[in-house]
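>> received
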Amino acid sequence: MVRRRYVRLVPEPTPERGDGAGTPTWSVGELAASIADHLQAAFPGEVWVRGEIHDLKRASSGHVYFTLVDDEGDTARLSVMLPSTNKVRVNRLLMRAGGRVRMTDGTDVRIRGRVDFYGPRGQLQLRMTSIDPAFTLGQLAAARAELLDRLAAEDLLERNGRLLLPLVPLRIGIVTSAGSAAEADVLDELLRSGYAFEVLVADVRVQGVEAPTAVAGAIAGFATEAVDLVIVARGGGATTDLAAFDHELVARAIAASPHPVITGVGHEVDRTVADEVAHTAAKTPTAAAQQVVAMVGRAHQRAEAAFEAVAAAADRHLHAATAHLDRLAARASTAAVSATRTELGRIDHARERLTRAATSTIETHELRLGNDTRRLRHAARRRVDDAAQQLDVLGTRVSLSDPRRALARGWSITRRADGTVVRSASDIEPGTTLLTTVADGVVTSVVDSAVPGPPRPPAPEDVP
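>> returned
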């Protein structure tokens, strides 16, 4: 076996002048060349390195640059450069893997290359020449299996699946990348259904290192929203592009969601951990939307069938009730005719009896009225005669009591000025004005003195 070693011959370093000690001083180029020689000596051939891709950039020159990070912890970082001349071979290897592996941030890879020291930048780097897609797929499969085992042990795989689907899910939460084909597929399907869906879209990154946190956060955020269910949608891509949906954060967020979650991630052949944990896993974003539309359609059909059944039952009951009413109306009409005839006969009979009784009563009362009238006339005539006699007696008495007759016989009536009748001398005082009425007038006088005389009984003719 022949072992070859390649070395680069460089001149001895020139001692720095003036130091007096003979200590060699390297130029930057000399030191860089020496480091490169030692690296080539230590790593004479290509090496395989495993790690996680970070900060991948594709330059306009065709080269690809990224940092390979230790997948067991961020304890070491290695700069990697994939020259454009090697990229064709690497892409061919990725295509042989069915396009399931794509070099993106967050992807665990096993790559091959040559350790090199790039003097112009003073940077240690790996010049990549090849890749092992099977390693990446194996890592993903192993991590996926291990995560599924842990989720199953915690009874999380079926937790979301035990939630009851709403009968009419019209308020939909969607976790996807805004403006993506997945969003367009879901919205187009919902729109074409013709149902009144209300959609809340959570715009998140669905690929890359930050995607798991973003997707999980959006699913958790819908817990406080009044949605009927949540659709998690991501279009097709390589297996590594769907790595976010194999992440533990996303799986636990789906399991903890209070709303049923329907996933539509990748192509028909893709199956992620998110699909395993979700209530329902659709093959594509379009299929996820179709399932929601189908749920509303079934509810619509059930409502239409129930309405038709109610309408048919109501129609049957209406016809039966109408027929029953017709029968009742016929019986009522017959009974009414018979009752009317009977009552008319009774009325005729009662009318005849009433006519006879009224005639008899009228005749009786006419006789009584004639007798009463004659008695009343006789009594009235007698009462009038009696009253006339009483009036004559009263007239004579009134005529005898007329004051004018007394005045004509020489009597007089004396009053005070206020009209009070003077009945006694003691009723007046000197100076009082008196009005004395005689037969032919009134005499006014003033009292000089008043001497009372003996009392006398009042005369019958005195009139106040």
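>> The chain is about 45% helix and 20% strand.
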